[in-house]
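Model it.
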Amino acid sequence: MGDSPSQEQIAAARAYEALMVPALFGQWAKTVLDAAGVRPGQRVLDVACGTGVVAREIASRHAAADLVIGLDPNPGMLAVARQLAPAVHWRQGVAESLPFPDRSFDAVVSQFGLMFFDDRIQAVREALRVLVPGGRAAIAVWDALDRIPAYAAEVALLERIGGRQAADALRAPFVLGDRDALAALFANAGATSVAIDTRPGTARFPSARVMVEADLRGWLPVMGVVLSEEQVAAILEESEQVLGPYIASDGTVVFDLSAHIVTATKA
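Modeled.
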């Protein structure tokens, strides 16, 4: 079962599911599963599953939740995932040491987790280890920051008021944006038949303030950065001006962003 979550972890996971999944993550679940070639009756592992958006898509698509396992190190994420989809198997664990035997799964998927693994090469090796021969892995990472101008603008705002450490925390999700470096990572892990498909998406937040405050109070503390209330207030004060080009007539923030979908087949 893993560790018991704290109330703070559960609250953070609920906020993540309520805001970040519809704003950013939900749209990619189908893309990742299509890339993995997931078919009915297959055993599928979702690594770094968070609150389970990809695992839920698999279960709804194939009506076989008992064949789906979602794995995440965060007990709060798993608690919320379990509430949303009790029929899926949820396990606590890390990508670098998957708690499953060799050749356990027909497909392994991971959406926007690889950037944060302590040992990315080992994580890819583990994904390949638990695949059956001919099995397929599909892993999504964000494109480079300089190709997602809205987040580049927010990073610049954070650096100006919050400092380098705060800005680096928001840069972290985009560190695998270089396609050549990404291909090399998978090659070094022993992956073969590697393909990288860069796909367009759209981010939608209720407002500039909601988008930025979610990063300041949600994401930065996860990365070990806690700003003063004065810094938070100053950043939020400027958020609408900085994100002005992306604010629609109804006040929502809408902008293009892209992701790399990496696929590899086990020999």
